[in-house]
Amino acid sequence: MNVNRDRSIGMEEICTHFRDDPSRYMGAVTPPIFQTSLFTECSGNEGGMEGRYVYTRVSNPTTEIAERKIAEMEKAESAICFSSGMGAISAAIMHYVKKDCHVVAVASIYGPAYRLLNDYLAKFNIHTSFVKGDNLSEIEECINDKTTLVYLESPSTYLFTIQNLGELSCVLKKKGISTIIDNTYSTPIFQNPLSFGIDMVVHSASKYLGGHSDMIGGVIAGRETDIKEIAQNERELFGAVMSPFDSWLLLRGLRTLPLRMKEHMKNTMEIAEFLSQRKEVKKVIYPFHPSHPQYTLAKKQMSGASGLMSIVLDLPGDKIIKFAEELHYFYRGPSWGGYESLISTVGAHEETDSETMLKGLVRLHIGLENPEILKEDLAQAFRKCAL
After folding, report:
1. What is the C-alpha end-to-end distance of the chain, expressed in Å?
2. CA 85 to chain centre
3. What is the pLDDT along the chain (387 residues), one digit of tens a residue?
């Protein structure tokens, strides 16, 4: 089903039908997995659609369907898939940087992205200034004549700091500085950064886009000229190409993405309110909870918030660890975005607050379970860690 681009289509239609074409695949309602490395030339098909595939490291029909869906969802001209979120993030950053340049980045971004900017790129004399990210003037003060890129993550990792995307893009475009944003948290369902003037969006598809905790992948979406250059350079040369099977799993995940995101948000709003009433919780950090200091901005540029939140516990580190160990429905793990609820006690042993972490911070991913069960689980864990 090739959806008509001349009329407005909703997210549900994009996720379920956009760029699907059963007539190409003998009527199969689910596109097949083109699990092949090589595409040979077929007689009688010169110039046809299949004739443009040569090698899966360059392009693959299964992957291409996912790319076109995500581009449409992000209101982008084009998109390209990678074998991991860091594959996409690294390729996007490398596209915009050059030897001896300068980057400005939000301090509380995804950890490996921070290490890439702060440590790895330093050997090319590429230096990064890190900012909190909630203040435009702070970013402007860091910009110099070597700045080529501002790297954003809104809301950011652990602290959920929000950047004013419209204001930022307006100022940076005038200065000729490019922008990348990690939109993994919100997904295209709840935020479209390109609509605010941001140049490029990256995703870890391993999280909500895949949605089942069974695949690893990444995506970049943006202008067609940029995506073509990345396809020919950063992806083709570095080789971080998404496998056909992971592309198929990604397509499966996309079909239920709008439904899952609404349920994640509904459950998380309920859990956030429950936790805000607990004496053990000093602070709830969730963009759509009224206590968030940037709640008004979040509501302005996001249509919803996902299942990831943080709390700051008024408990000593050993009690925080015990609290996590007593939970039955929250698995201890570092990732998120799947159907399951998770807990990460990242700030349990922090001595002081910093730009990237708060003392006593615990990150929760609220899954698709019944929220009443999750509340009961949290309550019993609080009771046990008080003993």
Report:
1. 60
2. 8
3. 444 444 467 877 677 766 667 667 767 778 889 999 998 876 555 444 555 788 888 899 999 999 999 999 999 999 999 999 999 999 999 999 999 999 999 999 999 999 999 999 999 999 999 999 999 999 999 999 999 999 999 999 999 999 999 999 999 999 999 999 999 999 999 999 999 999 999 999 999 999 999 999 999 999 999 999 999 999 999 999 999 999 999 999 999 999 999 999 999 999 999 999 999 999 999 999 999 999 999 999 999 999 999 999 999 999 999 999 999 999 999 899 999 999 999 999 999 999 999 999 999 999 999 999 999 999 999 999 876
Round to whole Å and give the CA distance between 332 and 365.
Answer: 10
What tokens does 286 get? 């969730």
Strands 281-285 and 218-222: unpaired
Measured CA distances, 353 to 10, 96, 269, 361 (Å): 42, 32, 26, 10
Nearest to 206 by CA among 81, 40, 327, 120: 81
**Residue 357: φ, ψ to 5°:** -155, 150
C-alpha 357/C-alpha 321 separation (Å) is 17
The whole-model pTM stands at 0.93
Q: How far apart are CA 200 and CA 50, in angstroms?
A: 29
Give the separation between CA 206 and CA 85, rounded to whole angstroms: 7
Residue showing tokens 């200034």:
129
